[in-house]
């Protein structure tokens, strides 16, 4: 089945890692993709690569911590492709990693602005378009950190817990208008973020062997899966990719 063909996906944090993989994978399946991140050059390069391969893509610089920039991103998607069928709230940061009393308040607050308020900005800007067109899907990239406590990650754990709450609230308010809002908790993924975690040396996640991480393409396949009927099954919750059952459901390899 193809759940994204001729659909418009807006992806935040698409300059590298999971977001870039989602853009490349869904565009190859016939989706129209809108890539955004702060690095304009990087998202433009990936959009050009997709277009050169026969796909449909556009790119716009957007810092998700800025409400107006996120609204402008949704307007850009409507202008270029005429709809927003799927929003992937993927942009997220973990640095600087530090224990609570060693943390810098401004840096700590910056994580909340990006990881948590960035998702709020995305929901607020995309939902009116989705209601207007009869529905849509919003996938908030979550984490096991949303429901666990890890040393040095108070900023990250609490921001992902807040995202989980936003997923539940948005589902409560807009499910009956056709908007499916769910979270996707991918487990550990081989991206720059895991390299930063390893460098920190704090908590058991930094001790994981890199071979434990899944490739970002598996997360992209899961996003595609959740754009289909499975999405509504998990509306208002986090779909966790950590279990064997979840991987089987998506069609990923299991060890
Ligand atoms: P990554 O490789 O570090 O990529 C992060 C992306 O977010 C980049 O495209 C970055 O682009 C963008 N970004 C950062 N700050 C931004 C801002 N203020 N506005 C807009 N975009 C911003 O990390 P990743 O591993 O792909 O992570 C993607 C998502 O998955 C995050 O929400 C993360 O919490 C979640 N996640 C990751 C893992 C993992 O093991 N890797 C596990 C669970 C959940 P610019 O720097 O150009 O803005």
Description:
The protein has 255 residues and is an alpha/beta fold. It has a single domain, classed as NAD(P)-binding Rossmann-like Domain (Rossmann fold). The protein is 49% helix and 15% strand. It has ten helices and seven strands. The chain has a seven-stranded parallel sheet with strand order 3-2-1-4-5-6-7, sandwiched between helices. Helix 1 (17-28) crosses helix 8 (216-226), helix 3 (67-81) runs parallel beside helix 4 (105-132) and helix 4 packs parallel to helix 5. The structure holds NADP nicotinamide-adenine-dinucleotide phosphate (NAP).
Please outline the helices and strands:
Blueprint: E1 8-12, H1 17-28, E2 32-37, H2 40-52, E3 56-61, H3 67-81, E4 86-89, H4 105-132, E5 136-141, H5 154-174, E6 179-185, H6 192-200, H7 203-206, H8 216-226, H9 230-233, E7 238-240, H10 244-250
The chain binds NADP nicotinamide-adenine-dinucleotide phosphate (NAP).
H-E order: EHEHEHEHEHEHHHHEH
CATH H level: which superfamily? NAD(P)-binding Rossmann-like Domain
Number of domain units: 1
Q: Any low-confidence stretches, pLDDT <50, length ≥5?
A: none
Distance between the termini: 24 Å
Strand percent estimate:
5-15%
Q: Rg from C-alpha positions? A: 17 Å
| CATH class category | Alpha Beta
């Amino acid at each position: 089945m193809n759940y994204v063909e001729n659909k418009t996906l807006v992806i935040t944090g698409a300059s590298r890692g999971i977001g870039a993989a989602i853009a490349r994978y869904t565009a190859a399946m016939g989706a129209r993709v809108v890539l955004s991140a702060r690095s304009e050059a990087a998202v433009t390069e990936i959009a050009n690569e997709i277009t050169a391969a026969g796909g449909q893509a556009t790119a716009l610089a957007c810092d998700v911590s800025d409400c107006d920039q996120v609204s402008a991103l949704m307007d850009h998607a409507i202008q270029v492709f005429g709809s927003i069928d799927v929003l992937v709230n993927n942009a997220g940061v973990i640095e600087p990693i530090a224990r609570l009393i060693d943390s810098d308040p401004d840096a700590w607050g910056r994580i909340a602005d990006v990881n948590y308020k960035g998702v709020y900005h995305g929901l607020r800007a995309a939902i009116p378009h989705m209601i207007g067109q009869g529905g849509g899907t919003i996938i908030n990239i979550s984490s096991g950190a949303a429901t666990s406590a890890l040393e040095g990650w108070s900023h990250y754990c609490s921001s992902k817990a807040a995202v989980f709450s936003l997923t539940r609230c948005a589902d409560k308010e807009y499910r009956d208008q056709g908007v499916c809002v769910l979270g996707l908790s991918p487990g550990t993924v081989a991206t720059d973020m895991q390299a930063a975690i390893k460098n920190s040396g704090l908590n058991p996640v930094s001790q994981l062997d890199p071979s434990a991480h899944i490739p970002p393409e598996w997360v992209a396949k899961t996003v595609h899966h959740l754009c289909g009927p499975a999405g509504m099954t998990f509306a208002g919750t986090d779909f966790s990719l950590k279990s064997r059952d979840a991987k089987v459901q998506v069609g990923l390899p299991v060890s």
